From TrEMBL:
Residues 177-276 form the DMAP1-binding domain. It comes from the Eukaryota. It comes from Chionoecetes opilio. This is N-acetylglucosamine-1-phosphotransferase subunit gamma. Keywords: Disulfide bond, Signal.
Length: 276
């Protein structure tokens, strides 16, 4: 009898550890059995997404800072999308009745710059999409009467385009890059343009030098910066895993406590039997 209880303890411990790895603590197999009617708790809203990367800092035209901290929604037949400029874009299935799909379509990283204009916010490192790839989104800007997320499409598998309209970009120079660079970088850009015109640079060299300027200005994310943001998000996950692990271990010692109690009762019963 005691042996059965001991092996049960081990099984529970192993099961709980496995559950921690999968982060489904609310579904401990023992909950109903040992504690009677313990209620399953739904994941908190901010826990329903697995976020791989910490958003980059704000960058780009200063007047767009008004958008930071706001979120914009739109729907199509199947999904609701929520785009938070300079933070993230997510997708939730609104057709499914049971455990709808929720995914991160990207986390704010940097700007797509074309012809001296900020044309799109790059949201990268979203939820997994097949082997080794992750969802990503380009949020394009165009002039509109109100700020709104007009539509989200998926022209290529797991590569999304979100169309954002706002009166903030209606001015002629609202999205021009050059005037928003510090003087030293403006002079570097002048030089690069000159060398390009003089034929001293290949197209590849020209693009590489511009890229270096945009990285220095903070408009493009450097590979190092990206690594660090990925690392920071992973650190957060470690912390919440740690908390979950500790909660589960506390649960296990509670179970062990109860099992000991039952052991004692059994021992007592057996002793009584022997006496009888
Ligand atoms: C997206 O960004 C908003 C605004 O900062 C934040 O409240 C929300 O938790 C973020 N969502 C995810 C999945 O990170």
């Amino acid at each position: 009898m005691i042996l059965i209880f001991l092996s049960l303890t081990w099984q529970l411990t192993a099961a709980v550890n496995e559950m921690v790895a999968m982060r489904v603590i609310s579904e401990l197999p023992s909950a109903g059995y040992v504690y009677g009617s313990q209620q399953k708790t739904d994941a908190k809203p901010e826990e329903k997404y697995n976020v791989r990367m910490k958003p980059a800092r704000f960058s780009g035209p200063e007047h767009l800072q008004d958008l930071s901290g706001k979120c914009f929604k739109c729907r199509d037949q199947k999904y609701e999308y929520v785009m938070c400029p300079f933070h993230n874009i997510t997708q939730e299935d609104i057709q499914a009745y049971y455990e709808p799909y929720r995914g991160v379509l990207g986390v704010w990283s940097d700007w797509t710059i074309e012809n001296n204009e900020f044309v799109a916010m790059n949201m990268i490192e979203g939820s997994r999409c097949g082997e080794g790839t992750h969802r990503s989104t380009k949020v394009t800007f165009s002039c509109g009467a109100i700020s709104e997320l007009a539509e989200v499409t998926e022209p290529e598998k797991c590569r999304y385009v979100a169309k954002f309209k706002t009166p903030l970009v209606c001015g002629q120079n609202a999205m021009v890059v050059y005037p928003r660079l510090p003087g030293t970088l403006q002079r570097q850009w002048d030089e690069v343009e000159q060398n390009w015109q003089d034929g001293d640079l290949t197209e590849k060299g020209y693009k590489r030098q511009l890229e270096a300027i945009f990285v220095k200005a903070g408009f493009h994310l450097s590979p190092d910066m990206k690594r660090s943001l990925l690392h920071k998000a992973a650190g957060k996950t470690d912390e919440s895993c740690q908390a979950a692990l500790e909660a589960a271990l506390a649960h296990v010692s509670q179970l062990e406590e109860e099992l000991k109690l039952k052991d004692d009762i059994i021992k007592e019963l057996e002793e009584n039997k022997n006496i009888a």
